[in-house]
Design brief:
The complex is a heterodimer of chains A (413) and B (190).
Chain A lengths: L1 H21 L5 E15 H5 L3 E4 L6 E7 L2 E6 L3 E6 L7 E7 L6 E4 L2 E6 L2 E6 L7 E6 L19 E14 L31 E2 L5 E4 L2 E5 L3 E6 L7 E7 L4 E7 L2 E6 L2 E6 L7 E7 L3 E2 L2 E3 L3 E8 L9 E6 L10 E4 L6 E4 L2 E5 L3 E5 L7 E6 L4 E7 L2 E6 L2 E6 L7 E7 L1
Antiparallel strand pairs in A: 1-11, 2-6, 3-4, 3-12, 4-5, 5-6, 7-8, 8-9, 9-10, 13-14, 14-15, 15-16, 17-18, 18-19, 19-20, 21-23, 22-23, 23-24, 24-25, 26-27, 27-28, 28-29, 30-31, 31-32, 32-33
Chain B lengths: L1 H22 L6 E13 L2 E14 L2 E10 L5 E12 L5 E13 L10 E5 L1 E13 L5 E20 L10 E20 L1
Antiparallel strand pairs in B: 1-2, 1-9, 2-3, 3-4, 4-5, 5-7, 6-8, 7-8, 8-9
Classes of the chains: A mainly beta (413), B mainly beta (190).
């Protein structure tokens, strides 16, 4: 009897012990992250930094612009590498144009137009090693300016960067996975510029600048800015047209502007070049979408936008024969597409490397080649050379013989 | 504290093995499989737990390796080594045990949109006491209770909204959870 009582007491004792110690059990969470504090500079100080410098190392590749033998490669937020590409197999970095806050560019004649934080700056690049600023268009991209009505560059302050320090803290709210430093990204939504196709040069599909005839069109996240560049050295601001939100890219073709946004692809007609009018709008859910076009079709890559959880990664092809909203003629699943370019029947897409398709029949694209091993961002296919900007650097591929597409040269970090 | 307890128990068991090997030869080890299920209880509530430990026993020492499922907070798969020391000469015995190893989070939401979590293996341990009853056919039933710890580590990549400024850079945050639980489990040994 005593033995039975003793054995029965054991599980009871175990349960009591568990219940007793449960209240002692506390979990602990630590969150390691960086705290950022803003760094501001006066616009006048930033302007004074615009100058030619010796060729510099490519560190943080940005957008690309091709004009004749010259390649202009953006160094994100820093300026532009000028590369002499007379011999594509041996491109030579000749100089670096220091432009703080720069992401985009366009070249007309001997004038380079670039964004300098909130300014559009016109620079004479007749001699890229000795540039001269022709004009600043103040606050062309006002999103980058702290709230101020002043136009005095000594009074305008710009958020130019962040100082960071490592921090370890307790996770204060269980179930919410952090983001203690997220607020830093809410401040300045970057608005940039870049170049597009013109008689004098070609830009990539990621560009935010496009020029048609004597007008430069630059998109911000919400507006389409129209700038008269008839007098190349003395550009004049015409108007800023509100065209929606989350605007990302602009591509000019056949007297139209194709504008990619996080939630739509729209076409603006340039019959009145100072006042573009929307002719087509096609919506989609939360995907980045650079665009290129030819005579018959617009090609759009939808890239899943991480910040809203979209998982759409695909190529959409729209017919340009109709008007108003349309459904795509055909869609193709992709992995993680970004920039694209089209030359003749060849369609180039940055997607887990570089994919080259025969687009003779848009209803049945045929993969010609898949070049892997680089984190591609944008491509310009022009004159038998595919200029590919990737996280690793700038790559040039010869596609004059589609059966034998091969690497010609690379400028890597 | 928990590390000291584990170390002490492990040393006691090793001492016991050494004594057994010194005093009696030859050493005979018999294979056993211990399959247990139970509950984990901690700050955030109660969760299910199951494991299978397979190893060999000589006299009063059992040593084996195990794997299981741990549903506390983050579903994970613990993989560990176990040492058990039985006390007494009767068929029914008390025992102490210590598990130590790693666990691997079995991510339920691999696609998390904004936040992409990458889990790393974390430390896993479990120590406790129990009572073991052996039936005539040699199989046995056990009940045990103790303390269990697992560390969940992961990083989260947070994307700048930057794809149209150039190739994107990613900000990474690191998280570490120390999860302390009491454990109650019932097992079948054969």
């Amino acid at each position: 009897m005593k033995k039975i009582i003793s054995a029965g007491a054991i599980p009871v004792a175990a349960i009591v012990m568990v219940l007793f110690f449960t209240s002692c059990m506390k979990d602990k969470c630590t969150h390691s992250y960086k705290i950022f504090t803003p760094v501001y500079k006066k616009l006048s100080e930033l302007r004074s930094a615009v100058q030619s410098q010796p060729a510099a190392a490519v560190v943080n590749t940005g957008k690309l612009y091709i004009r004749d033998k010259w390649i202009f490669l953006n160094e994100q937020n820093k300026g532009i590498h000028v590369i002499n590409n007379s011999d594509p197999s041996h491109p030579v970095k000749t100089s670096f144009i220091n432009i703080p806050g720069n992401f985009d560019m366009y070249v007309k004649g001997n004038t380079l137009y670039a964004d300098l934080y909130c300014d559009l700056v016109a620079i004479n690049i007749a001699d890229p090693a000795h540039i001269a600023v022709s004009k600043y268009l103040t606050k062309t991209f006002p999103d980058k300016v702290n709230n101020t009505s002043s136009t005095n560059p000594d009074s305008i302050t710009i958020l130019t960067g962040w100082n960071s320090r490592d921090t370890v803290a307790d996770c204060t709210v269980r179930g919410f996975n952090g983001c203690a430093g997220c607020g830093i990204y809410a401040t300045p939504q970057i608005n940039n510029a870049a170049a597009t196709s013109s008689p004098t040069g070609t830009a990539g599909s990621m560009a935010r600048f496009a020029a048609v005839n004597n007008y430069l069109y630059a998109v911000t996240t919400r507006t389409l800015n129209v700038i008269d560049i008839a007098n190349t050295a003395n550009p004049s601001f015409i108007q800023s047209k509100n065209i929606g939100w989350d605007i990302e890219t602009i591509f000019p073709y056949n007297n139209k502007l194709y504008i990619g946004a996080g939630s739509s692809m729209s076409v603006y007609d340039l019959q009145d070049p100072v006042n573009p009018q929307q002719s087509t709008w096609n919506g989609h859910w939360c995907s980045h979408d650079p665009i290129v076009a030819d005579d018959n079709y617009a090609y759009v890559t939808l890239h899943a936008a991480n910040f809203c959880g979209s998982q759409i990664n695909q190529l959409e092809i729209y017919s340009l024969t109709g008007a108003g909203s349309q459904s795509p003629v055909k869609t193709y699943p992709l992995t993680n597409p970004l920039g694209l370019s089209k030359d003749g029947n060849l369609l180039f897409i940055c997607d887990s490397g570089l994919k080259i398709y025969d687009a003779t029949n848009v209803a049945d694209l045929k993969l010609v080649k898949h070049l892997q091993g680089v984190n591609t961002y944008d491509v310009i296919a022009f004159g038998g050379i595919a200029y590919v900007v990737a996280k690793e650097g700038l790559f040039q591929y010869d596609y004059s013989d589609p059966e034998n597409i091969h690497l010609v040269s690379k400028i890597i970090k | 504290m928990s590390n000291k307890i584990i170390t002490t128990i492990a040393m006691l068991m090793l001492l016991h093995i050494a004594q057994a090997q010194t005093n009696q030869t030859p050493v005979k080890w018999k294979f056993y499989s211990i399959n247990q299920a139970g509950l984990l209880n901690g700050e955030i509530g109660t969760a299910f737990h199951a494991q299978s430990v397979n190893g060999f026993q000589h006299k009063q020492i059992f040593a084996g390796i195990g794997a299981g499922l741990d549903y506390y907070d983050y579903r994970s798969i613990p993989v560990f080594a176990e040492l058990r020391n039985y006390f007494g000469k009767s068929r029914n015995q008390f025992f102490v045990y210590a598990d130590g190893g790693a666990h691997f989070v079995w991510d339920k939401n691999k696609d998390q949109g904004v936040f992409k979590s990458k889990y790393s293996p974390g430390f896993y341990s479990n120590i406790g006491v129990g009572y073991h009853a052996v039936f005539k056919n040699g199989e046995g039933l056990s009940l045990s209770a103790g303390y269990s710890y697992k560390n969940v580590k992961y990083s989260q990549d947070e994307y700048n909204f930057c794809p149209f400024d150039g190739p994107c850079n990613i900000r990474t945050d690191f998280y570490s959870y120390d999860l302390n639980r009491v454990i109650l489990q019932i097992g079948w040994m054969f």
